[in-house]
Each structure stands twice: as structure tokens, then as C-alpha cells.
């Protein structure tokens, strides 16, 4: 029934893995990214280079990979006061959430993605949200996204499926999934050409990828890669 998908592709590790997951399952896949004034805007450049390399290295996937869309959502950055949209230290707020939480971000991303998908005849939206290794963001929770799926379907009067293949995976399992989908070559591509560091640091390359090595995103990626390296994916 569902043969086409739109992947929320930021240029980071998780969304790159989700893109491979979608290409492995659907006959036609398009991608969407968002410029919301993020400090780590370097991820937007990584999107382009990763897509180009993916097409070159995986011809079978290239045949399925359709248009890429980049939306200007800088208004979100203008109304946000967070460590992802402002030059401020990363810390926890009184609410218990880190100040890297951008209120409404994923809700808006999926809503705009659904509007685009509706126009282009795509019925599946794929996102890299995760409730296992995450910072407690309420818009990453499974319950939030299941509720949003219902709301989008009602609001568009069209069946819209939200897929979150990483929801119950930790970072080590996410690395293993990438290897299962595309082999060691995909793992290397994710290391070299994606970006996950909150500070946008592309000056230092580690075994797990580029980043400052100190922010919460880098810490999660580093620990996950170390665990994955000890026990890589089982061969298919």
C-alpha cells in the first residue's frame, strides 16, 4: 500500500541511517531538510555531499532516490532562545530539559513535511527520533509522534504514516543498523560525511566522525561507536 516515503534528512548520523532504511524498503524516496537558523548549519552542506556520495556508491538506491527539498524555517530560530539557535553554553533548564531543546521543532518539521508529501503523493514520513539515547525531548517520544500521525491524517484527510526506525535503538544499535543496511562502506560514509555535533565543529575528525568531542551529541555518538566497535553487526 505504501510504496513511497519522504525522509526528514538533517545531514546527521541518525537521519542518514533512516534514509538508508527507507531506501531499503520503499520504491521511491525523497528527502527534506530544514534551515531553522541552527548553530550547526554545516549539517546543511553535509546533506548535499552525503546524497551525492550515496548515489555514486549505491546505484540500486540511486535509482530509488528522488528529489531533495530544503525549506527555509529561519522564523523558528528567530523565536527560539536555545543553545541550538543562539551562541550560549549548553546547560539544563529548570524544567529538567537541556537548553538544546527547540520547542515545537519536530512538530513543525513533520507538519511541513506532511504538507509537501501530500502534494507529491508520498504517504510515509520517516524521522530519526529516538526515545532510547536522547536528551528527554518531549517531541521525540513515541507517544507524541503516534498522536501527531493521527492529527496529520485527520487534518489532511489522507492516510499518513510516521515511521521512526530508531525509536527503540541506542546509538550502538544505530551504527549496527547502518552496517546491516549498507555494509562497512555506509558506516564509513556516515563517519566522514554526516554531522551531528551541536557546535558545528568540522575541524576534528574522530573514529566516530567530526565534532567537538564534548557536547552531548558528540558524547552519545562517541560512546555508541565504541560499543558498536566491540560488537559490530552480524553479517547478513
TrEMBL record:
Its EC number is 6.3.4.20. It catalyses: 7-carboxy-7-carbaguanine + NH4(+) + 2 ATP = 7-cyano-7-carbaguanine + 2 AMP + 2 diphosphate + 2 H(+). Pathway: Purine metabolism; 7-cyano-7-deazaguanine biosynthesis. GO terms for molecular function: ATP binding; ligase activity, forming carbon-nitrogen bonds; zinc ion binding. It comes from the Bacteria. Belongs to the QueC family. Catalyzes the ATP-dependent conversion of 7-carboxy-7-deazaguanine (CDG) to 7-cyano-7-deazaguanine (preQ(0)). This is 7-cyano-7-deazaguanine synthase. The gene is queC.
Amino acid at each position: 500500500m505504501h510504496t513511497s516515503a519522504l525522509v526528514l534528512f538533517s545531514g546527521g548520523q541518525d537521519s542518514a541511517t533512516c534514509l538508508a532504511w527507507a531506501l531499503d524498503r520503499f520504491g521511491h524516496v525523497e528527502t527534506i531538510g530544514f534551515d531553522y537558523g541552527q548553530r550547526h548549519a554545516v549539517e546543511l552542506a553535509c546533506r548535499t555531499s552525503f546524497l551525492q556520495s550515496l548515489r555514486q556508491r549505491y546505484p540500486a538506491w540511486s535509482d530509488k532516490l528522488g528529489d531533495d527539498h530544503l525549506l527555509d524555517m529561519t522564523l523558528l530560530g528567530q523565536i527560539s532562545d536555545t543553545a541550538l539557535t543562539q551562541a550560549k553554553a549548553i546547560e539544563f533548564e529548570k524544567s529538567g530539559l537541556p537548553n538544546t531543546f527547540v520547542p515545537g521543532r519536530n512538530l513543525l518539521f513533520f507538519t511541513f513535511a506532511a504538507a509537501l508529501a501530500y502534494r507529491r503523493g508520498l504517504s510515509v514520513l520517516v524521522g530519526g527520533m529516538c526515545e532510547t539515547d536522547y536528551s528527554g525531548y518531549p517531541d521525540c517520544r513515541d507517544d507524541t509522534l503516534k498522536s501527531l500521525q493521527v492529527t496529520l491524517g485527520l487534518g489532511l484527510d489522507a492516510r499518513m504514516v510516521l515511521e521512526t526506525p530508531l525509536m527503540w535503538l541506542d546509538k550502538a544499535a544505530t551504527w549496527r543498523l547502518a552496517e546491516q543496511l549498507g555494509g562497512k562502506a555506509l558506516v564509513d560514509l556516515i563517519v566522514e560525511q554526516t554531522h551531528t555535533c551541536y557546535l558545528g565543529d568540522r575541524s576534528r575528525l574522530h573514529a566516530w566522525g567530526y565534532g567537538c568531542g564534548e557536547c552531548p551529541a558528540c558524547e552519545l555518538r562517541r560512546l555508541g561507536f565504541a560499543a558498536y566497535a566491540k560488537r559490530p553487526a552480524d553479517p547478513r
